[in-house]
Amino acid sequence: MKLLAATRSAGKQREIQRILSPSGFEIVFPGDVGLWETAAEAALELGESFEANARRKSEYFVSLSRMPTIADDSGLEVLALGGAPGVRSKRWAGASGTPLEVDAANNAELVRRLTGAGESRRLARCRCVLVFLPSPGAVPTVSEGDCSGRILQEPRGAAGFGYDPFFFSDELGKTFGEATDEEKDSVSHRGRALRALAISLLTACR
Fold first, then answer.
1. Do residues 10 and 99 touch, judged by C-beta distance below 8 A?
2. Tens digit of pLDDT for each residue in 164-190?
3. 72 included as an active-site residue
4. Contact at 8 Å (CB) between 15 and 159?
5. What residue spans define the domains of the chain?
6. Is 143 helix (H, G, I), strand (E, B) or coil?
């Protein structure tokens, strides 16, 4: 099955390709099919939940491409911050620039907000919601994944993207920034959501 993965994030693209391709899916991204970024896309992630944002992105891209489309929305939820940054994870600090510059600003804001916080207040989880639409107007398939951990005071590792160097995974015993691709994919929120979606799609095709 050929799927359009509706993301322009290079980090997410690598993860989606790694996780779904072994199951036999052919993955393409907006740029691969001539869907260049427009100002309208900025308004797609203004919802109040991960599912709302993923649904809007999926509906937008499936209508443009007429291809089976998956869209993800994901983020970090910190207990002591009332679940923030949550759905605002990507743009939390309000920074612009390259992806690396935006990540650096978001991580600086995270560190600032948790200054002086003890271990119990640094508990966090990463969440991902995926919405699949086979065609415009179709009934969506929704899959979710999460993983628990805590936020460190200092970054560890340079792998991954986003908040990965600060997110210490309970299951791995290391940050996502220190983990190999295989280690991260095995426990990450996106890895779990993608595998759940793959099972649903493969089962439906039988």
1. yes
2. 999 999 999 999 999 999 999 999 999
3. no
4. no
5. 2-205
6. strand
Q: How far is CA 72 from CA 51, 121, 176, in A?
A: 8, 28, 19
Q: Using CA atoms, how far apart are residues 158 and 161, in angstroms rounded to an integer?
A: 8
**133: which strand partners?**
69
Whole-angstrom distance, CA of residue 81 vs CA of residue 95: 20
**pLDDT tens sequence across 137-151:** 999 999 999 999 999
Catalytically annotated residue among 72, 73, 103, 164:
73
Fold entry, domain 2-205: Maf protein (3.90.950)
Q: What is the dihedral of CA 97, 179, 11, 128, to 10 degrees?
A: -100
The reported pTM is 0.93
Coil/strand/helix, residue 100: helix
